[in-house]
Amino acid sequence: NAGVTQTPKFQVLKTGQSMTLQCAQDMNHEYMSWYRQDPGMGLRLIHYSVGAGITDQGEVPNGYNVSRSTTEDFPLRLLSAAPSQTSVYFCASTLRWRYGEQYFGPGTRLTVT
Amino acid sequence: TQLLEQSPQFLSIQEGENLTVYCNSSSVFSSLQWYRQEPGEGPVLLVTVVTGGEVKKLKRLTFQFGDARKDSSLHITAAQTGDTGLYLCAGGVGNQFYFGTGTSLTVIP
Description:
The structure holds 2 protein chains of 2 kinds. Chain A is mostly beta strands. In chain A, about 0% of the residues lie in helices and about 50% in strands. Chain A contains no helices and 11 strands. In chain A, the strands form 2 sheets. In chain A, strands 2, 4, 5, 6, 9, 10 and 11 form a 7-stranded mixed β-sheet that branches. Chain A starts with a strand and ends with a strand. In chain B, about 0% of the residues lie in helices and about 55% in strands. The interface of A and B includes residues 48 and 56 of A.
């Protein structure tokens, strides 16, 4: 049981490039979410999904796309990277989304130059 | 605008001392969670509180949910160096979760 896995661990992009951050969980959780963490800002919700085929925007969705074709996978796509997207990105999943008991992946540290 | 405000932002104490961290909001939450995060890792859930006025104890950690379900506190008794980390509160509103800005705790031996 690997829990929540994220790849890559580190990534450097040039402005304008696109990429996909991968997230997978093997706990059969319905609810998955993506956050970004910036100094002094805590974690902010980017997008979330309450089940396969269902996604919705969080607090800071601009510049990011998601899809949820399976219960296990929830990739995050950066369409055209900007320096403001330099951050640490965390994926999380939860079985009981009403109670917010989220399990987090190890994070992806992204730098956009 | 931050939905959840945590205080203090930074805390440095000697091993063996007690401390309290606060998490406040003007919004009502269906539940509130506390997480601890270490450098280079994702947050790890410590506790979930659901009922207004609820108190939960986890060894030396005591968590309280306010009666109106708008605020919470985390009290650590006899802090140890292993308690060092970033403490985050989070609350659910509808389908979304909001995190506080965090309290960075350093316990000095």
